[in-house]
Amino acid sequence: xxxxxxxxxxxxxxxxxxxxxxxxxxxxxxxxxxxxxxxxxxxxxxxxxxxxxxxxxxxxxxxxxxxxxxxxxxxxxxxxxxxxxxxxxxxxxxxxxxxxxxxxxxxxxxxxxxxxxxxxxxxxxxxxxxxxxxxxxxxxxxxxxxxxxxxxxxxxxxxxxxxxxxxxxxxxxxxxxxxxxxxxxxxxxxxxxxxxxxxxxxxxxxxxxxxxxxxxxxxxxxxxxxxxxxxxxxxxxxxxxxxxxxxxxxxxxxxxxxxxxxxxxxxxxxxxxxxxxxxxxxxxxxxxxxxxxxxxxxxxxxxxxxxxxxxxxxxxxxxxxxxxxxxxxxxxxxxxxxxxxxxxxxxxxxxxxxxxxxxxxxxxxxxxxxxxxxxxxxxxxxxxxxxxxxxxxxxxxxxxxxxxxxxxxxxxxxxxxxxxxxxxxxxx
Length: 428
Ligand SMILES: *Cc1c(COP(=O)(O)O)cnc(C)c1O
Hints:
Aspartate Aminotransferase, domain 2, 16 strands, seven-stranded mixed sheet, four-stranded mixed sheet, about 35% helix, binds pyridoxal-5'-phosphate
């Protein structure tokens, strides 16, 4: 494939945008080479600036669950735009999307709409702190909750009781309120709670981790967290920015039948426009301004274009009783197909999957937390990534990302992808 125009555009972009990208995951730092510039997309396909067609497994990192330029979403946005793009005043459509979300998701009475997943998680934690009157939070190594200060924390060597910032600019003061636990390790969480008695406001978790590859919770892990939270007056925050409206209508809460106290959304809820949200039962949500003391605000929150896109997307997902089953079946088909050709080519691998989230790790061991995810062979991944790209399949340019399956993918597209894996496997 030729990437001439993409390379030229990237060189131009680098002069005026740090690293040439507006979000670091778009750069090819992890795999080498220069990012592909997209011209347009439709259904399961991206068309880049050099005229290449790529089968897309990123789908804007999740939102395009029904494919690119999905007609009902495009139509809703175009119609809405003609009537004004922002007012900073209440509009009916905000209530419509809120009512629909509340009807689809278990255990929530009210929802506040914001502009990104980062904002949703940041605000959820503030609300948890305000509601419980406690300062500390527990997060899990390898889970991503956006780029606000409290979340940019990782353990140094092994797990430390107090977090160490992994970005300059995050203060020690902020870092010391974030405690870091190992994903899928209940004993580790229990020990942190014991060591910080009556200080922990919330545990925030991706109920299926999707930012270190796809890592499902082991049997009993989420229920164990629920029980610990109940026993210690700690709020359980499910960051469903990735899993919400993807794993089921009601997200991971529905799939695993576990209630969280606060739930965060993003990605799918915006249908491809910038939307985030957080939701909870009345007694918690009523703590928010202007009803309660915890402040949270946004000039463009509930923006009419974003609401139109999100409402059209949720309406479609709500009306299509089979969509999540179809997505699961397609992903399972891909899983079986890829495993088969990697085995035939004697490539050491592990494939993790929940619903329409799937990741391929080039290591034979089970991948259950950040440490085991980090063991994957990055050199093999780089070769795999560029091989797939050349074969016309776009996966995330990092060994630590989940592939997102869209309903726009046909079985022919899946077979095309499996055949590409077979070809590339011979070069690994
Ligand atoms: C993408 C993501 C976020 C951040 O959302 P942005 O819209 O990028 O700010 C937060 N949490 C999870 C689980 C995510 O996948």
